[in-house]
């Protein structure tokens, strides 16, 4: 149902609206309480009165409510009265989603053509292609324009479309590409793969090829299934592959030729020993010492070095003291950025400062000059008596507005850097940016509380703008009280330093109250919110954590049972409400601070990785005397980065009210959280 074109929307009214009636349309549909509210809204106010006195933003919400109530007649009446309104494409989008099973191809394609600038077109395009596949309308399917990555399900439907329209060669070629991966594809791809079987395009060699990819990618379940597709004469060999993968020690009693030709044997051996190296590095190291001489005929030098490197790195990751020795013993040609990094981390964990210097100095220039290794090189120089060199390196690094820049400033007792600051307001540029189509759409979506859509449009806008215009956009978002919009635009303008734009006091009243109730610093809650969600209330991670404080559903539900939040905390949609997310996240953080005896570093690590992992890490040899070393040697890269970001954010938030030129007291510096990092007495 296309009512008017983009040119008309450009001139439409975007008058300020009252508090939106419908919250987060799209995430909230289908909940009984929300549905009841929507129906109530849809049935209030006579249409004549609505058309003459109700602001367009409110009529927009009423039209969405009518859709939710399946009142299409009222929807059409309201939509017709919104001619020229800036969010009309999203109204059409909602209508098309609600009626997709009966939509006409011409209607959908016209909408897609008219809204290519908005990030809704790919979402609708994929849904529409899958609907056409359900209808088996292959002519319309192939006539629909493809934009960007169509995804696996659509690609598999495309195989069927090509086959049904006589384009057999193209269908087979696409099906082969979809088949030859080391992981399981969706069930909707089965018809595409059956086509390969029917036309003889899935010979045993291709099945073995995919089986080897499955072992390489750590999917033995898929590999076992693929064995069933092989001829009986080849199953014995394939099952031997699975046995070696499950227990690499079997290689001691096998000749590599029993695994097939050299190309296949080396893949089986490499996958099996790599898996063992990741999960049992000590046992793998001992086994490899016995196997390496025997496997020289099948594995070349680079392949043997890869196995030794994996074993050594995972020994270091697991915190085994010998990991450092094994990594140092690798030939220079066997090293990668990954192995050089873990050689340095292993030396750091072992307290081997000279070994740390040696490891950092083997790094290529680009890696050695990363702030993390510049800081630890400075620490190692100070610890080994090269005070002047260490102090000079730390002094240079202390000018950075970053976690390691702050740590370096603590080493040499300097004020923290403030980072690049926002440009002075440019009113003319703000007016120009404010008049842009995508700006107006994004801010209107924000006012309508459609936060996911607002964020998508905002990111599309920022990609189009020059740095100065991005800063103008940031100020426009700040004026609307949109923390995410201000933060992302300002940071991408280059002004990522300490300022209210990049470190906003989002939801401050709630944060301050919840922090007080749970005996946690409000600066810490803001720091975590900034890192967890960038102040996006409806965002969900790929792991399933949702809301401003990014709680996993099971954790939130558990917190609800312990507090007065009750069953509301178990509802993912309600968890996207800022107030509930902050209350649940604050309660969980308070619980973690309690069980870890007010140790901020341990509590924040547990918020990210879970208390079980943190307890296991704390039980390892005594590194807790220096929390910075402990963080830098954690086995989870995500948790290391998370801790560094949150602790940095916390210091910035704690100091935001202080003059930038004033030296902060120890309680407001990273050293106050991580323990003393000053130059050791012996070095002085």
UniProtKB/TrEMBL annotation:
It comes from Acidihalobacter ferrooxydans. This is Transglycosylase SLT domain-containing protein. Belongs to the transglycosylase Slt family. One of its GO terms (molecular function) is hydrolase activity, hydrolyzing O-glycosyl compounds. Residues 515-622 form the Transglycosylase SLT domain. Residues 1-50 form the signal peptide. GO terms for cellular component: periplasmic space. Keywords: Signal. It holds the Pfam family SLT.
